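Translate structure to sequence.
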């Protein structure tokens, strides 16, 4: 059952990633990217890493996507929105409904896989995911963490400069 769920989530992730590239409307492309991020969060849950799934949803599907949509709105890209496609809404609703049914079925009928690697399940329960991730991030991966923060700071400064009106 887990394999079927994995294959369905993988199919949704691939289709939404392709839609990110092929959508002509930038907002639809951003929404497809959000769906891809949620699929990645589902992978983290399947790997028994709920903290990473929560971070994926909060940071990427939440904060980063708000910044991307805000940038799209600042750039004021004109898209012809006069065409209404109700069949896409119906098809999307049907696919979403069956995905929801499958998710509920898998959550009710299956159990999570045991963690593998240097940390045992007992150690994860006693210490906790958050502490282990924090310990690794601020000891072994401190330099990449700091480089990422500097890159994000540069991106924010660049967005402010681009959005600033000429005086």
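Result:
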């Amino acid at each position: 059952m887990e394999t079927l769920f994995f294959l369905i989530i993988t199919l949704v992730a691939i289709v939404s990633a392709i839609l990110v590239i092929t959508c002509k409307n930038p907002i639809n492309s951003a929404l497809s990217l959000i769906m891809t991020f949620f699929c990645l969060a589902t992978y983290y849950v399947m790997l028994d890493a709920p903290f990473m799934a929560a971070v994926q949803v909060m940071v990427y599907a939440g904060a980063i996507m708000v910044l991307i949509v805000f940038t799209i709105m600042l750039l004021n890209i004109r898209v012809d929105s006069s065409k209404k496609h109700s069949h896409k809404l119906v098809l999307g609703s049907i696919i979403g409904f069956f995905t929801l049914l499958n998710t509920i079925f898998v959550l009710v009928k299956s159990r999570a896989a045991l963690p593998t690697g240097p940390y045992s399940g007992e150690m994860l329960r006693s210490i906790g995911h958050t502490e282990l991730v924090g310990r690794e991030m601020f000891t072994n991966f401190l330099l990449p963490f700091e480089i990422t923060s500097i890159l994000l700071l540069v991106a924010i400064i660049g967005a402010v400069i681009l959005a600033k009106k000429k005086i």
